[in-house]
Amino acid sequence: PSTLLTLPSKRLIHFLCKAELRDNILTGFMIRKLDMVFIDRSNAQNSVCSMRHTEEIISKGNDIAIFPEGTRSKTGEMLPFKRGGFKLAIYSNTEIVPVTIKNSAKAWSHSNLRFRPTKVTVHFHEPISVQGLKDTDALALSKQVFEIINTELKR
C-alpha cells in the first residue's frame, strides 16, 4: 500500500511535485514513499500525462495539494502563481481550498539545509467553487487565491 499524508479529516492528499525532486539525495526517498505526482516541467507531453494522472486521482475522491508558485521563494515573499493547478481545478470541477502557511521560510530557508525551531501556522480558508468557470478564467482565479493567501500572510 502507498504511504500518503493525511489530515485530521482522514482524507488522502497527493502532492504535486517537480520531477527533479524525485532523484534528490536529501528528499528523494521520502518523496517517492509519499506517492507524490511528479510533473516534468521540461517536457510538455510528460506534463500532460501527469495532469491526466492527477485528474484520475481527483475522480477517485482524493485531494491534490498544489504549491502554485511552482518553486520556493528565495526571499520568503510569495512568487506569482502559475495557472496549471487552477486549470486542473476547472477541468475537474473541483473546488479550491486556499491554504496559508506562515513562517515556513523561517523554519527552513531556501539557502539553508537545516531546520530552525519556528512556529509554523497553517490556515485553511473557505473553499472556492469553480462551477461554471472556463479555462480562460484560470488567471483571475489564481489572482483571487493569491490575494486571499497574501492578506492572511500580512496579518
Q: What's the story with the biggest beta sheet?
A: 4 strands, mixed
The low-pLDDT segments are: 1-7
Strand content: 5-15%
Number of continuous helical runs:
5
Helix content: 25-40%
Backbone structural class: alpha/beta
Average pLDDT reading:
84
Helices and strands, in order, run as: EEHEHEHEHEH
Structural shape: globular
Question: Gap between N and C termini, in Å?
Answer: 41 Å
- Our Rg estimate from Cα atoms comes to 16 Å
Task: List how many beta strands DSSP finds.
Answer: 6
Describe, in plain words, how this protein is organized in 3D:
- Helix 1 (28-33) links the parallel strand 2 and strand 3.
- Mean pLDDT is 84; it is low at 1-7.
- This protein has 155 residues and is α/β, with parallel strands linked by helices.
- Strands 1, 2, 3 and 4 form a 4-stranded mixed β-sheet that branches. A two-stranded antiparallel ribbon has the order 5-6.
- It starts with a strand and ends with a helix.
- The protein is globular, with a radius of gyration of 16 Å.
- It has 5 helices and 6 strands; from the N terminus they run ββαβαβαβαβα.
- The longest helix is centred in the first third of the chain and has 16 residues, at 44-59.
Topology:
Elements: E1 5-6, E2 12-18, H1 28-33, E3 37-39, H2 44-59, E4 63-65, H3 84-91, E5 99-102, H4 104-107, E6 121-124, H5 138-153
Parallel strand pairs: 2-3, 2-4
Antiparallel strand pairs: 1-2, 5-6
Short characterization:
This protein is an alpha/beta fold. The protein has five helices and six strands, in the order ββαβαβαβαβα.
